Automatic annotation (TrEMBL):
Pfam families named among the record's database cross-references: PAP2 (PF01569)
GO molecular-function terms, A-Z: sphingosine-1-phosphate phosphatase activity
Record-annotated membrane-spanning stretches: 12-32, 63-86, 141-159, 171-189, 195-214, 226-246, 252-269
Signal peptide location: none
Protein's recorded name: PAP2 superfamily protein
Cited InterPro entries: PAP2/HPO, PAP2/HPO_sf
Keyword annotations of the record: Membrane, Transmembrane, Transmembrane helix
Domain Phosphatidic acid phosphatase type 2/haloperoxidase: 93-210
Length: 275
């Protein structure tokens, strides 16, 4: 598997970066055409769409609240630890991409300082599922960035060879991504353009992680057995955190990353004791 991933990454061209950049430019042009390059108008032009989407998706509160947890890097990456032994190259890209996404998410939220829906809209005009999120960190959606960062790495790491399968794989991950980011609107946490912008930024971050891992050997040490005790300890800590989440909220979705971590702990321990 790792060799196929390396081969897949080696085929990628930097021209792929044009897609998210052009998409973001289209969003900027649209906002400019709507005179919405200011916070007040940015919120105003989306208000009716936000309320409509929120009203539809909030009819399934348990489902969207579970699905939105995948936008938490701890949850998503814990699920993917099942690939840690057999696909370290993918994990090199995931680590780099996650760091890029963290930096961009924090920086852009601070720069734009857009108020979340619950900060300025009447709470009776839309549905809030779960914790009421306020503050001025709506744009871009951090969960959406995380989701598309990880999905982009998965997209290219596990890309099939044959064209029909490539198309199916791409559409499948795109559908999963759109489904997951839409939950942020359903919960009443973000406006539509927050998650759309976040998805484009996430795609950029995912590509960045791939090209960083391809050019630099920053994380190649993670495949070395002598460092496995570090990851055993890390996975144990992550397992404890998720168990605490299960105790506090008992969401079904939390059992998937816990299962992934338990499986990974078994495999990595098994590999380590073989040396």
């Amino acid at each position: 598997m790792n060799k196929n991933i390396i081969d897949n990454f080696s085929k990628l061209n930097r021209s792929l970066f044009f897609l998210p950049l052009v998409f973001l430019l289209i969003i900027v042009f649209f906002l400019y055409s709507q005179n919405a390059l200011n916070v007040a108008q940015y919120v105003q032009i989306q208000k009716s769409y936000f309320i409509l989407i929120n009203s539809k998706l909030s009819q399934f509160p348990t489902l969207i609240y579970n699905l939105t947890q995948i936008g938490d890097a701890l949850i998503f990456l814990s699920i993917l630890t099942v690939f840690f032994i057999n696909a370290p190259k993918m994990w090199e890209a995931l680590i780099s991409a996650s760091l890029v996404s963290l930096i961009l998410s924090r920086a852009l939220k601070s720069i734009f300082s857009v108020p979340r829906p619950a900060e300025i809209l009447d709470h009776h005009s839309f549905v809030i599922v779960g914790k009421t999120l306020k503050g001025f960190s709506s744009l871009p959606s951090g969960h959406s960035i995380t989701i598309f960062t990880v999905l982009t790495v998965l997209l290219y790491a596990l890309m099939p060879e044959k064209l029909p399968k490539k198309i199916f794989w791409t559409l499948l991950l795109f559908f999963i991504g759109i489904t997951l980011i839409s939950t942020r609107v359903g919960l009443g946490a973000h406006y539509p353009l927050d998650v759309i912008t976040g998805s484009a930024i996430g795609y950029f971050c995912g590509l960045s992680g791939i090209f960083i891992s391809r050019k630099y050997k920053i994380w190649n040490w993670i495949a070395l057995k002598k460092y496995y005790p570090f990851f055993i300890a890390l996975f144990l800590v992550c397992s404890i955190i998720i168990i605490i989440k299960i105790i506090n909220e008992n969401l079904i979705i939390f059992y998937f990353p816990l299962a992934g971590l338990i499986f990974s702990l078994f495999k990595i321990t098994q590999e380590y004791v073989k040396k």
